[in-house]
């Protein structure tokens, strides 16, 4: 890796700007908490943030072209994300940009577009404790975290989670109510690596949890392909046999 | 299975109506050839056809609601398929309707929408022989066909085929030029089972080939879930712990 | 399927013959309970049982050759199963016989031999309730059972379960203690289909639970290939190009 | 990675010591050619070789304990590898040692033991050209090699290759005769990462091919986990609920 890792932390930033309790929990926004956590764990990385209210949601062609990994947090404003920006992000993912989709981002346009399913699930905002168990102990995303990660208070996300069978299932969570959830899943779309990680909520300080932040840092490294020229797969006509001998 | 299997064979039906050579090869259209082949191999099944030029492309809500498995062939007119119909088909697939995507259907709106990738590939319309090798010999879709299936003349479809890693890789093809292709792949989206099968072209009589038709009949049976009520996964709030005890 | 489905239910049958409480719970042995449950749910099937203390553990060449699906329950006597019989069973699985490995069978010689891993796990024999959640709702093994299946009392089996990534993950269980387990997994080895299902213990009446028995019946149907000649894959020299044209 | 990568290149070394033509092709043995190729591409790595005729085949407990990745080439002498050494290698793989199984190593005791299948295939030692196509373009093992890699002369290895469905399918090969082969496959067993790569034969100078050596170097890096303490998964009894709170 010859250049610094470039990360863009995206957040809709609505709860933080409209609910004092959330603002108190995340004084610099969920994006600020994630960016700080990544900066601490990825020394040398260039980390910027972007939010919904910015022009083009802060995700211009230039920003994405200079982003190795994009993290995505959204909840109440999925439908305010413009289709044009979603399409641009999709193109960049297919071209090799890494994407981390977080928690309620399961219902974002970009995630459902890339996965082709409804991404629906069961949920309860109660008094649950979440335990995050590693089921792929050799996966680099699970490196350095205990199994289980104990999250004292969390929103319950339960099966059935309507996703395609993931390429790799890294984590399974359980909740006090007995529900389970495939909470850490990898997918590939085109040249891009995608990781979905469900722990994290505006109501709880999950993005201050050191093991959660470690997973996000691991996943950022895993999803990054800084040496790959950004280009989605394309169709090729090969009229001549043995065309590959000149390659 | 208490009711007859209900199959709808869809075709854009453009080559057959504009090119005499194709019309001669497929006098009842590619859809007619496929429908005949399925009828012969799926006794008792109700098989209908639908084409692009019909109102709503012949794929009304009523037709889809009465379809266990839809087969899809398109090539030059993908962009003439209305987004509304694509969205309707996607909903039905997620709700449990089986979908067989054939050959140049790899670039159809419905396939790229469900897969989330570009579905691009390499191709050459030359003098290739295609060999279709079974790599999942216990899969019901491969039942009763030799490995390889020999197709004397075919368009070459080669890697890289930009699809997500399939749930199951059933067939791999090679071509005279040495190219290879993941030619038989299964996917699941929501409650629906999807099979992509690449052999088949308007320029060659591939849809008269008995082993190709056998694969399509096998795949139709595999993808059908006639006893499942048609409903896509949905979100559920579960406010009460132990909510499942009443189920 | 032109012949009746032939099932052999194997059990080490040690707890039942040495512990009165287990004998009271399973008067005809765990094998008897499973055989009865399958017989009720698979009308027309020929179901026999076999146990450790029989000559060749009841698994002669003749018995296996006449078995479409073998179910395996063992616990304290894994090391009393002869290597010769294990080898014979392995050959039949690779040749197309279905295999259902149940509960503590995770540590059997046949399972570890076929999987290539230690198959170790976490466990606690306490007061746990097990919930069995479906994560592959279109899989035939999950047909007709609620999600979750509620098992009031069960031994806890938890991650990390040291198995290869399964072909298909059908069920995930949680326990009162918060542990999770990949409790329903499919694998393929050679021509044989394998299903591991963890619910079931000598200390609890799990094999009288109707939904557990339904899963076993579904899995039996899924694993059976009665029309396949019993033969493991073998090496072939193909000295002549185009050897397949005569096939 | 705080210590140098430690690689042991194992070879049965029989062809080279009994057939002058092979000795001429590989003057330092196939192991020598592989070791040189890795040394050039993995600067700083400690690369040693070991062969069948050495005491304990050169694979003592001490050697394996000091090996991050073991590469395995064997062909005519699989049955001369002692079961004790195979068992030792298996334990180390399950404990986290990487394993690269090469070409005719498909039939080695260590590979069939870890995979649980016969690993049989089709073959022809003729005049075939092999083309190695990348089907997982984002996989680190495929980094920096063209698709296809062109190998002018090679033994044909064809489907059906009797392996479990691989975790990841990285390469598919085709041959002049039209056969195809899943030539680059990853598997996980316990804590160990395994890569099978079929190109390579004693009759052809394949281990002097720069792209083949690049794949082996990539795979070595991918399989290595130098910071993981060598330990296979083990069973744990967890008698107390919330045992994980002290972790």
From TrEMBL, chains A, B, C, D:
<dbReference type="InterPro" id="IPR029062">
    <property type="entry name" value="Class_I_gatase-like"/>
</dbReference>
<dbReference type="InterPro" id="IPR029010">
    <property type="entry name" value="ThuA-like"/>
</dbReference>
<protein>
    <submittedName>
        <fullName>Trehalose utilization protein ThuA</fullName>
    </submittedName>
</protein>
<feature type="domain" description="ThuA-like">
    <location>
        <begin position="6"/>
        <end position="223"/>
    </location>
</feature>
<dbReference type="Pfam" id="PF06283">
    <property type="entry name" value="ThuA"/>
</dbReference>
<feature type="region of interest" description="Disordered">
    <location>
        <begin position="226"/>
        <end position="247"/>
    </location>
</feature>
<dbReference type="InterPro" id="IPR009381">
    <property type="entry name" value="Trehalose_catabolism_ThuA_prok"/>
</dbReference>
């Amino acid at each position: 890796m010859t250049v610094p890792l470039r990360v863009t932390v995206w957040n809709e930033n609505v709860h933080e700007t409209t609910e004092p309790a959330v603002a108190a929990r995340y004084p610099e926004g969920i994006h600020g908490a994630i960016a700080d956590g990544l900066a601490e764990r990825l020394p040398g990385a260039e980390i910027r943030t972007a939010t919904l209210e910015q022009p083009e949601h802060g995700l211009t062609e230039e920003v994405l072209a200079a982003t190795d990994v994009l993290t995505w947090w959204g909840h109440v404003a999925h439908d305010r994300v413009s289709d044009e920006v979603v399409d641009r992000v999709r193109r960049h993912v297919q071209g090799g940009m890494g994407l981390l989709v977080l928690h309620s981002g399961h219902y974002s346009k970009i995630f459902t577009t890339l996965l082709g399913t409804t991404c629906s699930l069961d949920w309860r905002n109660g008094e649950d404790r979440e335990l995050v168990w590693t089921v792929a102990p050799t996966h680099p995303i699970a490196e350095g975290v205990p199994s289980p990660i104990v999250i004292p208070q969390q929103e319950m996300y339960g099966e059935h989670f309507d996703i395609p069978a993931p390429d790799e299932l890294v984590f399974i969570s359980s909740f006090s109510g007995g529900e389970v959830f495939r909470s850490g899943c990898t997918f590939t779309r085109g040249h891009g690596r995608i990781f979905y990680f469900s722990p994290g909520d505006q109501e709880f300080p999950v993005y201050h949890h050191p093991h959660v932040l470690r997973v996000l840092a691991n996943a950022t490294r895993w999803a990054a392909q800084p040496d790959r020229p950004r280009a989605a797969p394309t169709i090729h006509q090969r009229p001549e046999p043995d065309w590959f001998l000149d390659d």
